[in-house]
Design goal:
- This protein has helices spanning about 30-45, 50-55, 65-70, 80-85, 85-90, 100-110, 140-160, 170, 180-185, 205-225, 230-240, and strands spanning about 1-5, 80, 110-115, 115-120, 125, 135, 140, 165, 185-195, 200-205, 245, 250-260.
- With about 260 residues, the chain is an alpha/beta fold.
- It has one domain.
- Helix 1 (about 30-45) crosses helix 3 (about 65-70) and helix 6 (about 100-110) packs across helix 10.
């Protein structure tokens, strides 16, 4: 099973460690593409601060991210497993997985990134600020930029197995499984279920969406689950205690979180 994750805006910063070795990252077919985005991002953040902040969508309180990006080539690095600190990653708790589950995570998880394209959890990179929604002056929109590069690499990485896609929409735009692989790709939607006036109402949630995705991935990794089809994944999640709906033939799994009634 291949698992696709978004990054997080929250990132740890290494205090010490070796600098970036671009050609040492996994999926070396992406090295040149990564280098092109890195070069433009560094130049942008070394130049006009107002322009760079506008391009990256930074508020005045986040201007310090410009200096961080300008120093990407020499800044200390840390593994992607330690870099991302957002809600999904807190719930996933990579640092507290047992050894077998962590090996499975390192083997199966890909983290999408506006700067790096995709990373494996062991890849060492510095803390950065560059979302997939950014449009760099020379490179253009990053989702469009990465799409042909990832189309050339990721089908082989996925092989003949199941793909569990837990990405947000911005990162899903950078690569969409096609053909037979699309039929082996499951997406997850988290719905809050409440009874209001005797009527069941469902709504898509945001914070709980991220936390639930992290928790269910952790549960799958800890259980050593290896489903090969979307229906088998739905069954595996039910066995782990999740309430899951899966319309026949659909790639989407709805995970239901039931709240208190009125």
């Amino acid at each position: 099973m291949l698992v696709l994750l978004p990054p997080s805006e929250g990132k740890a910063t290494a205090v010490r460690g070796r600098p970036l070795a671009l050609d040492g990252l996994s999926l070396p077919e992406l090295t040149a593409a990564r280098g092109a985005v890195l070069d433009e991002l560094v130049r942008l953040c070394e130049g006009d601060a107002d322009k760079a902040a506008e391009v990256l969508g930074l508020t005045p309180g986040l201007r310090g991210e410009l200096a961080k990006n300008a120093a990407l080539r020499t800044a200390p690095t840390l593994p992607a497993a330690e870099l991302y600190t957002g809600v999904l990653y807190d719930a996933l708790g990579l640092a507290t997985l047992d050894a077998s589950a962590l090996r499975r995570a390192r083997r199966s998880v890909l983290v999408f990134s506006g700067l790096w394209g995709v990373l494996r959890l062991a890849d060492r990179v510095p803390s950065y600020r560059c979302s997939m929604g950014v449009r760099l002056p020379g490179t253009g929109g990053l989702a469009s930029y990465w799409r042909p590069h990832l189309d050339a690499v990721l089908p082989e990485v996925a092989g003949g197995g199941l793909v569990l896609d837990l990405r947000s929409a911005a990162y899903a735009a950078a690569w969409k499984p096609q053909g037979a692989l699309a039929g082996r790709t499951a997406t997850v939607r988290v719905l809050q279920v409440r009874v209001v006036g005797g009527v069941e109402k469902r709504s898509v949630v945001s914070h709980f969406n991220k936390a639930t995705k992290g928790e269910l991935l952790r549960a799958l990794l800890m259980a050593g689950a290896a489903p090969k089809t979307v229906p088998a994944l739905a069954t595996a999640l039910r066995d782990l205690g999740y309430e899951v709906e899966h319309p026949a033939g659909s790639p989407q799994l709805d995970v239901l979180l039931r709240g208190a009634g009125d």
